[in-house]
Structure formats: structure tokens, C-alpha cells
Amino acid sequence: MNFLEIKGLCRNFGGLRAVCDLNAHIEAGRITAMIGPNGAGKTTAFNLVTGLLPVSTGKIFFQGKDITGLPPHKIAFLGVARTFQNIRIFSNMSVLENVMVGVHTRSCKGMFSSALRLPGVSSEEKFIRDEAFKYLEWMELAHLASMDAGNLPFGQQRILEIARALAAKPKLILLDEPAAGLNSQETNKLSKLIRNILESGVTVFLVEHDMELVMNISHDIIVLNNGFLITRGTPSEVQRNKDVITAYLGEEH
Ligand SMILES: Nc1ncnc2c1ncn2[C@@H]1O[C@H](COP(=O)(O)OP(=O)(O)OP(=O)(O)O)[C@@H](O)[C@H]1O
Ligand SMILES: [Mg+2]
Known about the structure:
The protein is α/β, with parallel strands linked by helices. It has two domains: 162 residues, P-loop containing nucleotide triphosphate hydrolases (Rossmann fold), CATH 3.40.50; 83 residues, Rossmann fold (3-Layer(aba) Sandwich), CATH 3.40.50.300. It has ten helices and ten strands. A six-stranded mixed beta sheet has the order 6-7-8-3-9-10, sandwiched between helices. It is globular. Adenosine-5'-triphosphate binds next to strand 2 and helix 1.
């Protein structure tokens, strides 16, 4: 059984085939990157896996369970968290409150009060706050906890979104272009953070255009072009693949 399995996945937008007959899998305990030129279908594939978009055809299995067609919150409960290419944080809420939203995703299951025998809402609230703070400490954002999230510098907003996703205690995290807009120092920190996330026991599925980052941290790479899978392999296999070079550089090269 594969950790995440995508079978014959298609998504059409009118006449446009954004994802076509995609077969792919993700193994637990590894960093898998999905790369491809602009418009290749990467974000669409993430939207299908997380239930944000209905599939046209095909199936998605997470830990052997068919999650095709489940609403996003159910997929999140099963242990799949994500970040977005265009950052989605709550700008008017504090940095801490943003992460509390992530922790709350867990509490919606009702497991806190029952498992921990908490007497009331206020204790649960305190638990959520303390939990959220731990993620801010991990991401080195704790000193900014009370700041409005919208006032954070861009790079730290990206990290905050990752913190919120992790606060849901996922088994799998999907990161859609986490390095976009980051400077090289921030990107270096991000690559360490992604390795660190993996070491903490969370499997990573990454979409990214920064090839240095991808080649440095990925175990497996899936390459899409025009909605189709063109190859899958290790970083060195993918770098040598003629179809990949053609997809990125065009036919004339
Ligand atoms: N909601 C939508 N409605 C119509 N077309 C869409 C929609 N979302 C994506 N598309 C189209 O589907 C194709 C794949 O888009 P997608 O955003 O998945 O690409 P991508 O690989 O993530 O690209 P990028 O690297 O630029 O983020 C593109 O042609 C895009 O214009
Ligand atoms: Mg995209």
C-alpha cells in the first residue's frame, strides 16, 4: 500500500485538460517534489488531492483509504495539510491566532476534551494556545506572536502558513511553492526547515520552481508537463532526462 496513491487522475476546465491520466505515488518518510513548467498542472493536482477541486475522473487514496470526492476538512482530518502558492493567512489575526486555527483543526474532532479530560472550554483554549506557541517556537516566530499576521515580512508569512499547517499535526504536508518570493538566505533556512519537518515524522510533497532547492532536498521527483506525467526519478535521473530538459527549455534546445 502506498502512502498516497493517485490513479488515472484527470481534471478538465472546459476544454482545457489541466491534469491528464496522472498516475503517481508518494512514499512515507520521504520528500517528493513535483516539478514542471508554468501551467503544468501542479497546483491543480494539489487541489484535487486536498479536495479543493472535484476530480473529473480518477481516484486518490491516502493510506489505503479512498479520499476521492471527500470535502477538504475530512481530508485534513485524515492527516493531509497544505500551504498555498498565493499565501492564505488571516491578515487581521495575530501570528499566534493563525497557528491556533491550525491546532483547532485537530480539536474539531472532539478529541482534546475527551482524551485529556479537560474540564471546560477555557482549558481547551489554553491548550490550543500553548500548542500553537510551540509551533511558533519551532519556526522561530515566537517573538512575533502578538503581531498582526498581515504585518509580517513576506518570507515570515510563508513560514507562518507552514506553522499553521503543521499545527494540525498532519501525516502529509503539501507545500505549493514555499520558496516563491524568498531571498537566498530565507530559501536556505527553508530547505533546513523542510528536512526538519520530515525528521519530525511528516511526509513532504513539494511543488517548487527553485531547482537548487528541489535537487538538494528531494528523494523523489515527479515531472509534469501540460497535465501529463513525463517522468519520475531521483534528482540525478531527472536532471539527465531528455524529456525534462525539452519541457523546460523548449524543442529548439
Ligand atoms: N480554476 C481554473 N479554471 C480554469 N483554468 C484553470 C483553473 N485552474 C487552473 N487552470 C488552468 O489549468 C492549467 C494548470 O494550472 P495549474 O495552476 O495547475 O499549473 P501549475 O503547474 O501550478 O503552474 P504554476 O507553476 O504557474 O503555478 C493552466 O493552464 C491553468 O490556466
Ligand atoms: Mg501552481
